[in-house]
Design brief:
Elements: H1 2-12, H2 16-52, H3 63-68, H4 70-80, E1 88-90, E2 102-104, E3 170-172, E4 180-182, H5 197-208, H6 214-223, H7 230-243, H8 245-255, E5 260-272, E6 281-290, E7 302-309, H9 314-320, E8 327-330, H10 334-342, E9 346-349, H11 351-363, H12 372-391, H13 396-422, H14 430-440, H15 442-445, H16 459-475, E10 478-480, H17 481-499, H18 504-514, H19 521-525
Parallel strand pairs: 5-8, 5-10, 8-9
Antiparallel strand pairs: 1-2, 3-4, 5-6, 6-7
Length: 538
Amino acid sequence: MRGMKNAANSLENLSKAELINALQAAQDALRERDNIIHILHEKLRLIGAKTYGVRSEQRSNDPQSDLFNEAEQIGHAEDDNSLEAGSIIVDDSATATDEQSETITYTRRKRPGRKPLPESLPRVEIELDIPQADKVCGCGCQKKHIGSDSNEQLEIIPQKMFVARYLRHKYVCTQCEDGVQIAPPQPTMIPKSNAGPGLLAYVVTAKYQDALPLYRQEKIFSRYGVELTRQTLANWIIKCSQALDPLLNLFEQAMRQAPVILMDETTVQVNKEDGKAASSKSFMWIRRALAPPDDGNRHGKDITLYHYSPSRSGEVAAQLLKDYRGALMSDAYAGYNNVAAAQNLMHAQCWAHARRKFVDAEKSLPKGKKSPAITAILNEIAKLYAVEKQIKALDAEQKQQRRTQLATPILDKLHQSLLKKANEVLPKSALGEAINYTLKCWGGLTQYLKNEHIPIDNNGAENGIRPFVIGRKNWMFCDTVNGAHASARLYSVIETAKANGLEPYQYLRHLFTELPKAKTDAEVEKLLPWQIDPLTLE
């Protein structure tokens, strides 16, 4: 109370100008307080949405959104081969002018039915017959067989363990003492080990494709009466991965010939690492090359390479991109910016990251509230993605021409809208941060217009990260540095095999059988995933 009286007395002694200034300062402080409260509320709502809400960036289909979403509807229609009744399709295949023709079509969604079982699976016929007595008619005649009805059921035989016994035949001359000649031993991935290529392929696939930790595999083998400790399984994995270096060297050489490399990184915990606490973070880096198909290859060299490092330093990115001369696609991490500038690389940045920030801004709004500004921005970004879907099947020259023609006016409109809105929102609000991020990265976000090989986003690399993240949720950590490096090698082989249309277990079994026999680079090259026909692995 005394403090209030003193403050009142102090104000009485102020001049008019001083009072005005004091009032202005108080109003500014109140405004700043309200802004901080507003931003904190946004952050709380966003945390709640990320914790308890749907994690997908797919937005609700409100009528207002659909008005801006026509172009994206085209893309979905092309991918799904189906549209809801009453969908509007805009035909802008002629030219990007103001005079666009619109074709309105109405299609009915087909009722979902059971998909037929794959023709590639072997068939075992099981005959079901009527009793012998029923084959005689009541009139005494023998009934004639006129055909059969059939239906199919999918069956499975669980994995069956067996022992492969190799008999090395010996020969000796009976007329002289030339000595005994014996057949050479079967080359193996792990010398002096009793693990066959099929077993090694199973263990690796189970851990790195199916995210089955070694302690669970240990229990599975135990049920079959085979005692294989997780330490034994871990040693097999490390030794197998080390034997893959000749193949991975060829992966590396092929990647450096790619016109674009996509990069990303994620955390991993390594318990036993010199100079670091067991709970500290290390990093798994990923590079992915989405090269166009070569004349001699069915799929082209689609390559995914993982690299373990205890650091997220930009020096790691510089090491992984050393002597590379193509284009780089990444997020806005400064380490990528620095290496791109140092090596004079064309550096494109990811539209999915920019879009995600506006989606977060939308999620930070009070429940039931919509922002026309956010909706408009997100739908302009959706139109950019729709353009990519429209031009996906075109050749390189046509693709780039069409992309520039369709995407440039969308980008120009979006850029002007962002510049205008930047002056109307709080810089530290969710929308303000999204706008500032996008404007800051605008040069990188528009680089894809200059090179037909550059995708619109870094989703290719993020999709490569996803299998590792799923595995990490199950096995939690790597115990040793050697284990982390082994994981990087084996994830590289499995994900590259999948990208080139190969089933991981079948490819690994083939690889673990043939790689120990390979003596020359040419023999190793024949084992590259893009050199193998999937039908030969069945």
